[in-house]
Specification:
single chain, 332 residues, mainly alpha, A middle domain of Talin 1, 13 helices, 80% helix, globular
């Protein structure tokens, strides 16, 4: 494929994937609201729709045997999310405030999911054991997210735990409640979900093919292409949405979007493909990205917990960390 054709294919597929995922996320939110899903479940569903370009691109690369490219997209996009959604959001808005309960619930799930996937990848651990651990993490989280705060009481649950979970869920629900849709979605809105998902998948295949040609022509490795180029470009729509929420003062929504996005990326784009594709040992660059992701997630959580908010200082530290990370990947 000529270079000019590869550039045109890459840009057109990137635009198509970005627009399709944005509309897909919006349609899923409409349909979920109409079905009466809780705010927590809606957040997970719409985050999955927004993550569809990264996930589809990673799976496409893994299926085609480009394991460094596929892993780089998922892990690199998560590192980018920490810097862009949190770091840039705090720098532009001044601060991103969030209740400690909401922060610790979402961050705890993200840290646990990252640790399990890192263990599986770094040690070539059992997919069955990893799946059981991920289920033990996500199923209670999804169950809690599906329940309204007022109903979070159970004879086996201590009162303190129930009140803590109520505060964690209520904070996120109040923060995102002004974007629900009073008008029920039409049949066209509902029927558009599958074609939109198909457009994301097809455009992701085109991006991987074009990126391979461009990488070979420019001498860039699959790790650099996936971790820096594809991960960053496919993560821009999420970053724009999070910055808008941060400027509006909706810190709990930013926290939920960022951590849920990272958790779903890892499960759908890194763990599930291992059930069908043998990835083999990770490269040195891939291992470094995984450790950086785990450390960055812990750092972002600590910076938030100190003042129940991420200040410009903390946001700048996360952005600076990403600049160092990008330099190491590019040099490596």
């Amino acid at each position: 494929m000529p270079i000019t054709s590869a550039i045109a294919l890459f840009l057109s597929c990137l635009i198509l994937a970005t627009i399709s995922s944005a509309v897909l996320s919006h349609r899923l939110d409409q349909v979920g609201t109409n079905l009466g899903l809780s705010e927590g479940l809606l957040g997970l569903v719409t985050a999955l729709g927004a993550d569809s370009p990264e996930i589809a691109t990673a799976i496409t690369a893994l299926v085609s045997g480009q394991h460094d490219l596929g892993s780089g997209v998922i892990f690199g996009s998560n590192v980018f999310n920490l810097a862009a959604l949190f770091g840039l959001g705090a720098l532009i808005a001044g601060r991103v405030a969030c209740g400690r309960e909401t922060l610790l619930l979402n961050a705890g799930v993200a840290i646990a999911v990252t640790a399990v996937v890192a263990w599986q990848k770094l040690t070539d651990g059992s997919a069955l054991i990893a799946g059981v651990l991920l289920a033990l993490i996500m199923l209670p989280y999804i169950t809690v997210s599906a329940i309204k705060p007022s109903r979070l009481r159970h004879p086996l649950m201590p009162g303190l735990a129930a009140r803590w979970l109520q505060a964690a869920i209520r904070d996120a629900q109040v923060d995102s409640g002004d974007e629900r849709f009073p008008t029920p979605p039409s049949w066209a809105d509902k029927l558009a979900i599958m074609p939109l998902l198909g457009m994301v998948v097809v455009s992701s295949i085109g991006m991987v093919r074009a990126a391979t040609v461009l990488g070979s022509a420019s001498g860039l490795s699959d790790a650099v292409l996936g971790t820096l180029v594809l991960a960053t470009l496919t993560g821009i729509p999420n970053a724009v949405a999070a910055i808008r929420l941060a400027v509006q003062g909706r810190g709990a929504a930013v926290v939920s979007e960022a951590f849920n996005s990272n958790s779903l990326n890892l499960i759908a784009g890194a763990y599930l493909p291992t059930l069908f594709v043998t990835a083999g040992p990770m490269s040195g660059a891939g291992r470094m990205v995984l450790w950086w992701l785990l450390g960055g997630t812990l750092l972002a959580t600590i910076l938030f917990v100190r003042r129940a908010a991420l200040t410009r200082w903390g946001g700048g530290l996360l952005v600076l960390g990403y600049v160092v990370f990008a330099g190491l990947i590019a040099a490596g």
